[in-house]
Amino acid sequence: MPVCKSTTYDFSKSDNVESNTKYLGDASKADWSSSGEPAPYEDSLLLTMSQGTVGTLLASTHYVWYGKVGARMKTSAGAGVVTAFILLSDTKDEIDFEFVGTDLLTAQSNFYSLGITNYDNGKNLTISSDSMANYHDYEIDWTPDQLTWSIDGKVLRTLKKSDTYNETSSRYSYPQSPARVQLSLWPAGLPSNPKGTIEWAGGEIAWDSPYMTNGYYYSQFDSVTIDCYDAPSDAQVKGSKSYKLTNKDASESDFAITDDPTVLGSFLATGLEMDEGKEEAAAASASSSGKASKTANTVPGMTGAGNGVDNHAGDTTASASQAQQSAATGSGSGSGSAASGFVQGGSSGASNMQPETVLSGSLFAVVIAIIGLCIL
């Protein structure tokens, strides 16, 4: 992938978003990959969620390895409806802003390391006015030593890496691996979700809610700003184009900056087998050239929706972001396998959508896999 640009995405154009049914790790083709059907609206972008769908997800095609990331946005509203602005790595480090639709004056901040659940990590932050009716600026400032969450320019939470040391694992439980920016709207209040998730989301979702417009819930994003910081001092610098995980421990020092490619040959490929299925995909493309598409239009988010069975069914108090991350990154699929598409809230149904698989699969399978670069 090309190096990360410190820039502002104003969402006034839709041509910088590419469906994840097409995205194969070539960040020069789009700034964002999507599941569902994000809708341009008055120089902004709506993330929509209709009945029978699992909402909409946007994920940046470049990775950020420390930086300042901000989103100017309006949330959705209603019981069971969750809007999210997060950073999520392929090794399940995570930094969250989450918004439950029944509390429009609160932003929930959270963080995870390697996807390990710790219910003491969350903290509620107060928003000065209705988060659906008004635009607010939400910002995550992430450095190797400290993490802050800000709203409208005011720092409301600070986390120091030094305060996260875990004696048992002899490791800092601090997000420290390159991550993608993710924006999403999803139905945490589906009746099929775990009881704890539904309660956290304010109850079961209603598909006849007054918060729905034109048949769907929506959140609205005006812009996203990304300022990339220098790589940490212990980074293994061997190039300038991509990040590479060199050790399954996935600590900060286990990542290298290389010139290795990141574009996959097909949806069967992985970071370990970059050209898997490339010849077959090329042959299939050639044989279908000139033929009219028979793909029917769908309502936003319908493709790949599945049946809404939660991936964390055994965890009745799992946070929504954990269900989201499992679905959005295809976690749980084996090396070289193709996971189902965007299924926030969970899905075990079949899907014709394939996720980006540059670093999918088990942690042992990604020791030499490649992800995108973000530097100044």
From TrEMBL:
The keyword Signal applies. One of its GO terms (molecular function) is hydrolase activity, acting on glycosyl bonds. It comes from the Eukaryota. Residues 278-351 are annotated as: Disordered. Keywords: Glycosidase, Hydrolase, Signal. InterPro entries: Beta-glucanase-like, ConA-like_dom_sf, Glycosyl_Hydrlase_16. Residues 282-294, 314-342 have a biased composition (Low complexity). SUPFAM superfamilies: Concanavalin A-like lectins/glucanases. Coiled coil: none annotated. Residues 9-209 form the GH16 domain. This is Glycosidase CRH2. It comes from Lithohypha guttulata.
